[in-house]
Amino acid sequence: MQRIGVLFVGVFALAAREGAAQQATGTTLWRVAATTLATPPALALGPSAAIWNPAQTEDGARLQLGIDAIQTPSAVDATGVIATVRVPAGKIGQVGVLFGRVGLSDISQTVDSPDPTGVIPVYTLAAGATWSRLVAKTSLGATLAFHETVLDDNRSDRWTMDVGASRSFAGDRFRIAAATHFFSSLKANDPSQDLFAGLEGRVWSGALSGDRVVVRGRYGISFGHGFTADHQFGAGVEFGKIVALDLMLAREGTYGSGGASWRPVAGVRIAIGKYRITLTRDTGVNDLGSAYRVGMDARFR
Fold first, then answer.
1. Which of 56, 79, 86, 164 is nearest to 125 (CA)?
2. What is the C-alpha separation between 101 and 127, in angstroms, rounded?
3. Cα separation of 253 and 285, whole Å?
4. What is the pLDDT of residue 219?
5. Sign of the C-alpha dihedral computed for residues 276, 282, 283 and 288 taken in this order
6. CA torsion, points 167, 133, 101, 80, in degrees to nearest 10?
7. How far is CA 197 from CA 64, 227, 241, in A?
8. In 3D, which of 67, 69, 74 has the Cα closest to residue 33?
9. Cα-to-chain-centroid distance, residue 53
């Protein structure tokens, strides 16, 4: 969220430029959407989580649907949606399609008076195909996506190819994961893309009122984007297979010489039959207010 101010300046400073600068602005909008994740991006699970890490093979349902709705505070006024459909494809693994869009609202256009004469469109969208498969106990995945970023009258298009991996050890005691995010150039400092990595470990498990309770610790990092790395420290508590609570403290890097900021995020996941509901909220920084995400995914067997 600390980078939102840079985004607002960049939206108009970059509007007259084409190519990489505009693509970086589009990815910054996706980083705004990622502030609603209560787990490190590399460790995110679920159909819609394929946009953060395509290595999603958590079950063998014959059809998986996922949709997330994102709303940032009024000071930012960005909204987003992520939708995914996945199906098994025999020995190939699982295949699916995904769509996501994040945009800013209520940016008014003026001419020679304070009265607005129109609305300036500012948004980015991604649409593509995703694949995943379990190979030698390792979940592998890839996503090919088309991106369009619009800043007023300027439009930039590109294709990205992302790969991800996730592996658990000793049952569910320990898990590591890594993924590229909107990868389109062989650079280690490109602001239009990210590299994600994460570690998760089971720190305690036991019975409570007849249900198994599991406590997990998490750490994640986002880097390779041309500014200071972001770090995520978190924990999760699972009560059987019904309710799970997630808490994360994110240390966000910065573009310039300013100090990093800390931002808490909390979430709850509730399973109701074939449906799973996710609610998350961050506390925001610099008095900007909270961002929210409401997600629902369904698994039909």
1. 79
2. 9
3. 13
4. 98
5. negative
6. -40
7. 25, 16, 26
8. 69
9. 8
> What is the reported pTM?
0.88
Tokens read off for 48: 């819609």
CA angle, corner 45, sides to 40 and 50, nearest 5? 95
Residue with tokens 């609305």: 119
Distance, CA of 132 to CA of 96 (rounded, Å): 9
Q: What type of residue is 151? A: L
Mean pLDDT is lowest, of 99-113, 195-209, 235-249, for: 99-113
Q: Identity (one letter) of the amino acid at 44?
A: A
Distance of alpha carbon 65 from the chain centroid: 17
Indicate whether 248 pLDDT > 60: yes
As a whole number of angstroms, the distance between CA 41 and CA 236 comes to: 14
Find the DSSP H helices in the chain: 4-13, 20-34
Q: Is 177 exposed, middle or buried (0-12, 13-18, 19+ CB in 10 A)?
A: buried
Structure tokens at 224: 């390779």
Backbone conformation region of residue 49, classed left if phi is above 0, alpha if psi is from -120 to 50, else beta: alpha
Backbone φ/ψ region at 224: left (φ over 0), alpha (ψ -120 to 50), beta = left
What structural domains and CATH numbers belong to the chain? 4-300 (2.40.160.40)
Amino acid identity, position 11: V
Bridge partners, residue 138, by sequence: 135, 167
Q: In whole angstroms, what separates CA 127 from the centre of its chain?
A: 15
- Is the pLDDT reported for residue 7 higher than 70? no
* Longest alpha-carbon distance in the chain: 69
Residue type, 180: T
Q: How far apart are CA 293 and CA 82, in angstroms?
A: 11
